[in-house]
Amino acid sequence: xxxxxxxxxxxxxxxxNQLAVVESYGQLTxxxxxxxxxxFNFSETTFIESENNERGEYSVxxxxxxxxxxxxxxxxxxxxxxxxxxxxxxPLDRIQLSxxxxxxxxxxxxxxxxxxxxxxxxxxxxxxxxxxxPLLNLSREDLIPNAPIQxxxxxxxxxxxxxxxxxxxxxxxxxxDSYHQATARSEAKMFLLFTPEAEEAGNHIHxxxxxxxxxxxxxxxxxxxxxxxxxxxxxxxxxGTDTVTARVEQGYEIARPSIIRxxxxxxxxxxxxxxxxxxxxxxxxxxTVTP
Length: 291
What we know:
This protein is of the alpha+beta class. It has six helices and 18 strands.
């Protein structure tokens, strides 16, 4: 089976979030996919299970080193980009993936930059700042006042944590004992910290994502979490408007700088979320041994 290694949400090669894509086409069991994902040990590995079906969708499964997830942003964007470039039999401006979470369309512009329309955000519980702040090595004063710490999902739930400054985000890390206690009964296990500041000109938001539950201590670029963030910003009008267009920088603390483009607006009772970025192919090869 052929595999590919991509850098997703990157502005250059050897940046962004690494992704392994395996052309499995139904030849692997779930246990084998889990073993291969652990072997690559990227935040996610995807498996293309079928070529386009009667609905024009490609069936894809997504695994972290800790197990399967129903949706994730950079695997969706990267896998669609690879299908468009190397698997589809004709150049397409739109690729639709069939994931555990549902059908996700990804569109492409003339520069090969992709953008996915995520599922409408679902808003979950609000968390106590006095519990969450110390868990993340933050104080109450580090948090943006009157902005809730809240679970949001566009297919995979994240706890969104609004932080006042980049300096506070940079000092953050997870205290594991408190983490397990705080998330034991919570559907959301992952934290996205963000601040409306940026290190580089042209960017608008600085973010970090911690994911000890799925075996990814820190993710360099998290499209699913940034989709949740886009919905959160619209829901709470945190940037002063219910229409959001922004460049999110992530991965700077772990030497994998990434840029994630987010767009969101309210359409009646729902919020429409788009997340996009660039993709680079780094390598390809062949699996020589099946687990």
